[in-house]
């Protein structure tokens, strides 16, 4: 059979053909497209946003190519999602060839969350009923419903995995889900609040953001949980130490014993005279403030009062101080002296309980006292 060279028309046709399939080794994942997928945007919306970013002009491509590229990325992310549910599997699978640094990025971003979204869910039970309300949460926060569902499912997944594990809560989250220290601590706060069911939704608490509550969760975990005294028990950082909460009622002697109350006031006033701007107000209201702080402790043996912990701090201490125009440095000075002066009370035998209680109270109030 005679061979004839292709004419110019055949060459032109072949040159005009588009490349629809690319075969390679390393899986290519565009970080910007990944974020659009995580944010819950459809392919159409993602393409529009990429067009507005100027990517077509940057690469000299047409919109059809951009649509194909975006669709391909979305397909890859959806296939990889099941592996992200158990991040340790990502390093051992053979379907995707992904460098370790890129794996860490995929995991960290997948489990990242919107602070406004988590603030709405903080303290709520991670149940089907809560998930049904995500439409309203999406509307309120401006986070897409798809992203809300992904974040909610992440919270629930982490909660279920670590709630029965022995050892430190945050370390368990970090090791099982391969998260950074900061993100693992945040998830520890979410799990802790979901388990205790702290009330965070009341109007008086709306000024507090997730970072405020996450800080307080860290203080509570370090000082008031079973894990604060026993490092290898079940639920060590998830449940509060019930024996400690029962012992807190012994602190009432600070306000029921008149001599001790007067001596405590005298020590605090002597230390703060001339050192805070609101000394007169502090001296006049000392007994009321002391009763408020001690009564909060005495009620924590009851589940409802534990859940109202943050409301009580605001209503019984923070708001009275604000009404007298205390500044943060005055609050800090008072709480420091109020805590330390109890050490000089010879008749006060509950020093260890007091230190453990006031360490958390002082830290939480200072974090929550927004001027």
Descriptors:
0% strand; mainly alpha
Task: Characterize this entry briefly.
This protein is mostly helical and 371 residues long.
Topology:
Elements lengths: L7 H9 L14 H8 L4 H10 L2 H5 L3 H22 L15 H12 L3 H7 L6 H5 L1 H8 L3 H18 L6 H9 L3 H16 L13 H15 L17 H6 L5 H4 L1 H15 L6 H21 L3 H5 L1 H15 L4 H14 L9 H18 L3
Helix pairs in contact: 3-5, 10-12, 11-12, 12-13, 13-21, 16-17, 16-20, 17-19, 20-21
Can you describe what's shown?
There is one protein chain. With 371 residues, the protein is mostly helical. It has helices spanning 8-16, 31-38, 43-52, 55-59, 63-84, 100-111, 115-121, 128-132, 134-141, 145-162, 169-177, 181-196, 210-224, 242-247, 253-256, 258-272, 279-299, 303-307, 309-323, 328-341, 351-368. The N and C termini lie far apart (92 Å). The model has no long low-confidence stretch (mean pLDDT 91).
What is the terminal-to-terminal distance? 92 Å
Radius of gyration: 29 Å
- Rounded mean pLDDT is 91
Structural class: mainly alpha
* Biggest sheet overview: none
Per the principal axes of the C-alpha atoms, what is the gross shape? Answer: elongated
H-E order = HHHHHHHHHHHHHHHHHHHHH
The count of DSSP E runs of length 2 or more, i.e. the number of strands, is: 0
Low-confidence stretches: none
- The percentage of residues in β strands lies in under 5%
**SS element count, helices:** 21
Helix content: 55-70%
